[in-house]
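Good morning C.,

I know you're traveling, so I'll keep this short. The sequence:
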Amino acid sequence: MEQEEAYLRTDDLAAGDDGKVWIREINIHVARGEIVTLIGPNGAGKSTILKSIAGQLKPVDGAVFLEKTAMKDWSEQEIAKRMAVMMTERTRPELMTCFDVASMGRYPHTGRFGTLSDEDKQVWEALDMVHAKDLADRDFSRISDGQRQRILLARAICQQPQVILLDEPTAFLDIRHKMELLTILKTLVRERKVAVLMSMHELDLAQKVSDYVVCVGENQIWKCGTPEEIFTETCMEKLFGVPQESYCAEYGSVELPPVKGKPEVFVIGGNGSGIPVYRRLQRQGIPFAAGILHENDLDYPVAKALAVQVISERPYEAIQQETYEAALGVLKDCRSVICCAKAFGTINRKNEELARFAQETGKM
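The tokens, ready to paste straight into the viewer:
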């Protein structure tokens, strides 16, 4: 992204603590209407970057810019009108209701005594947006971690910011509330053109929600790009040390290593039908072979990760005789066959022959 498009940007930022630099040359640009996500292993420096941008840690070097103006030239209140921050530290204010906590986000816009005017009664709107109106009168210290995350997001929304910084915003949420929170962020981005900079550990969710991804590893930013450029087997191996064969770039998921040994079961799958069987066999410690799968089939990435051997065919081509014979040879050496496919078309008719052979020989 060009710098002039960025609402928030860092210019050769060096972040650390007590004058000690932990990570240098941080150049991040976030435009309004865009989600930029930091990914990387624990301790890589993602939280340090966010805290330095937010002003919670004083930058060792470089600068942070909002609206092309250095943040050091803005007053705290002016920054608060433009930037909201939601970090992972658990906020536990005493004797405050959820409404009170959410309404704290209005402080940059209130008068000298912090009194909410009629036009400042946007707290209810924010609570409604995060599906938390029913929590308004509850004691903030007595609700669940997931509920707290929603209240803190409501507080950030109440600031009416142009940019929101979030550190692991889905960390304490169950899957339903993870999806709700990310949907809310996408709504803010689309409808209000808010810029979002956040860190995430859930790679599958980061792949789905991000417009741009920043890889933080070994105390440096070593790669930036679109999700399609970042979520590849090569990048994930370099960033997290995940073996290439264990990461399914197509699904943004990590699979456990395959069970070693000679295949005992041959799985005939296709169109996603084999995936639950592959995972069940892996859980049970049974080495297996999979085939015949076209290399663009839904089953193929997971089979490649979990099977001892995969017999495959090129995309969109009918299964060749030599491919069939290779699969048949592997199948004959297996003690049993599982056929997951419910129907066979023209290009995978050879799989039907494999299934028929397994049936006739008592391996099915």
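Safe travels,
E.
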